[in-house]
Design goal:
homodimer, Dihydrodipicolinate Reductase, domain 2, Alpha-Beta Plaits, elongated, Homoserine dehydrogenase (chains A, B), oxidoreductase (chains A, B), EC 1.1.1.3 (chains A, B)
């Protein structure tokens, strides 16, 4: 069904279509219903849902969708003359979400999306499409749930050259790590509990292996540094190897363990290089990120004039995500929209990835070794030969199971590559009962 | 001197004039110089200083101002045809700052200001002037230094009905309280040290008595709740009565003491009422505000969909403040400007102040009493008669000085007015050697 309507103006309602009516889609409808009056006041005009599309029309979502036009084929939303903005809440980096997004922007309609995977993979193409069509492309909900951190970087820190952007970008991992910390339970048990409580997906790989955080980091880096989104070059390691013993050890040393995504631009003789990494880190108590518990997200941006800024809040959930989607819609209704990545797509630079081996770092290294004489000498000799200087070393008492003993250490500050080199010297050693775990210590 | 120039467009430079060249004014010039290229890219056009005004033309400010036109009379800036936006960094709620602001907006020029006192007192009038002239009025730097919290409330949480806005809004007080906490030193000594280090003004009254925080709170409340700025009805108490012994006592109970500004709207049978208060509070360790140290500021906004959001960063200083001023200028250059208080001035509601006496609260009460028999019975009887239920009570050992003994207690949750009533029963008692100190406990 297609209806004709007058061209949108700045006082006529902003007419939206929603594709995808999962918890977030239903949340957006509930929010627009609940806060309708206040939104119309702040936006300067009402925001009205006119059409929706999802897999199953009949499903009970707790909100009345019978009042909206229905499209079986979601891309039909992009062709409706009575729609100004399409809200894409389908998910997936490609497929129907991408097709709908291209069609919507191609038709000159605004696009609001919560789809971090799609923006991480196709953000540049979509931004150029949007700019060519003079249409809005907004994705506040793609990073940090309800935290206005895309806006924070795009507009709040816009006068700054950022030196660094980093943070806790995945609520599932943070829930797992902070629960392990609080309860002493093991990874697998906490993951199962998180799945039961809805804090982790049935297939948790994207979260616990760091891919979801990497999507978000790539988006933040692009906005923060004016670079093309470069998800492919994010170095990612997840939290699956972190044991409760590591968390206890870190605690004894004054640290917590958090999955941190961090990005910066390094000036090298060959020109600027972009470093993007997601990995579990030791975070000193006293650092603002050490106090971030549960499914909360937090992003730190360090600007050359602003200093360190922290944005923190619920990283997921239908309410917070709907709040971010609706904030984007209000911006569009207010006509406060510009380049999706802060500078026009054509001007985003393509930076090669940085090689961080020379960077100074303190590192936590944990070995699981055979409980036999000479092992400690073997480890320390390798570290010496790799030029790694040990600040503190803790050997746990005899293990209960299978003669396995944990040896944990913290290095003095030294080039990152030295740890890699030292561990290479130990490769193949039959003293090691597991791959050593290397966790950098986040600078204060 | 007046020059003529073409009407500003969205690609021509945004031409600004700066009134006031103290550390912040000089910081803005330094920022616009240092980050010029990046700002032009993000703003879509250059931002150029064309004219300045200050008290002393010859003073060395570390930046070259000879390249700019000079006006002895700062209100002349508002009359220059070659100026699009006036940046007011003079300070003071009235006088020259207000005259310049009125003249600039009256002439249809944008106004960017860091002047919290002026916005707290005259924000509504200036917003209406700006809206009538279709000119920008922006004041990100007025609250929270470099933290984009005005933007956070105006745009980031725009889809939410806020239930509460609160935070640490004065860096001087937070520096003093967190230093007292860390060192055990007394208020007067830490204040003197803060003055020596530049964290406190020579005349610190505005800061330590809570007035500065009240200015900021009134601005946040207006944006968060869509109300007319109502500084006159902020209930203010400062930190001058807080002793190091209170901080130690709070620490023993698991709390820190912070000066908190908080605002909410209460629905009463007589209609909505606005509550705004600034006062030292006990903040439980584990609350995000408890970890805010030194001159840092932090604001929490709780939305009905977003949940709790935290914005944190440097609350003052030339770099952070310049960052906020320049972010406002970039917004204006991008033409991303709307109602200064999020909704048009004519629609901001005038809410009567709320009476909080019935609200449930837990409270810390500290008495300094004569060291003689029966005093504890006198205190506890008054609390019983006021219907205050005591959760824990600590009587310090004998005092070194003058037979003064400290008795500190934490109440169970009960109506706020009961504590007031109980203390009224003790008024005039010669057992009390100082006015009792009442510090509410911030809910988690």
């Amino acid at each position: 069904m297609t209806t004709t309507a007058p061209e949108p103006s700045r006082t006529a309602p902003l007419r939206i279509a929603i594709a995808g009516l999962g918890t977030v889609g239903a949340g957006v409808i509930r929010l627009l219903d609940t806060n309708a009056q206040l939104i119309a006041m702040r936006a300067g005009r009402p925001i009205e849902v006119v059409a929706v599309s999802a897999r199953d029309r009949g499903k009970d979502r707790g909100v009345d969708i019978a009042r909206f036009a229905w499209e079986d084929d979601m891309t039909a939303l992009a062709r409706r003359d009575d729609v100004d903005v399409v809200v894409e809440l389908v998910g997936g980096s490609d497929g129907p979400a991408l097709a709908l997004s291209r069609a919507s922007l191609g038709a000159g309609k605004g696009l609001v999306t919560a789809n971090k995977a799609m923006i991480a993979h196709h953000g540049l193409e979509l931004a150029k499409l949007a700019e060519a069509a003079n249409a809005a492309l907004k994705f506040e909900a793609a990073v940090g749930g309800g935290i206005p951190v895309i806006k924070g970087l795009r507009e709040g820190t816009s006068a700054n050259a950022l030196t660094k952007v980093y943070g806790i970008l995945n609520g599932t991992c943070n829930y797992i790590l902070s629960t392990m910390e609080r309860t002493g339970a093991d990874f697998a048990d906490v993951l199962a509990e998180a799945q039961r409580l809805g804090f982790a997906e049935a297939d948790p790989a994207f979260d616990i292996e760091g891919v979801d955080a990497a999507h978000k980091l790539a988006i933040l880096a692009a906005i923060g540094f004016g670079t093309q989104v470069d998800f492919a070059n994010v170095r990612v390691s997840g939290i699956t190897e972190v044991r409760s013993a590591d968390i206890a050890q870190a605690a004894a040393l004054g640290f917590v363990i958090r999955l941190i995504g961090e990005a910066d631009v390094e000036d090298t003789p060959e020109g600027p290089r972009l470093l993007q990494r997601v990995r579990p880190c030791l975070v000193a108590r006293g650092h603002p990120l050490s106090a971030v518990e549960g499914a909360t997200n937090a992003v730190v941006a360090e600007g050359n004039f602003s200093g360190r800024l922290l944005f923190q809040g619920a990283g997921a959930g239908d309410g917070p995500t709907a709040s971010a989607v609706a904030a984007d819609l209000i911006d569009i209704a207010r006509d406060e929209v510009g380049a999706p990545f802060s500078i026009p797509g054509d001007h985003l630079s393509a930076l090669p990835p940085a090689e961080p081996g020379h960077r100074p770092a303190r590192t936590y290294i944990r070995f699981m070794v055979k409980d036999r004489p000479g092992v400690l000498a073997e480890l320390t000799a390798a570290l010496r030969d790799g030029d790694v200087s040990i600040e503190s070393l803790i050997q746990q008492g005899r293990s209960q199971s299978g003669g396995e003993v944990m040896v944990a250490m913290v290095t003095h500050e030294g080039p990152e590559r030295c740890v890699t080199q030292a561990l290479a010297l130990l490769e193949g050693s039959d003293s090691l009962m597991a791959k050593p775990l290397v966790l950098p210590i986040l600078p204060l």
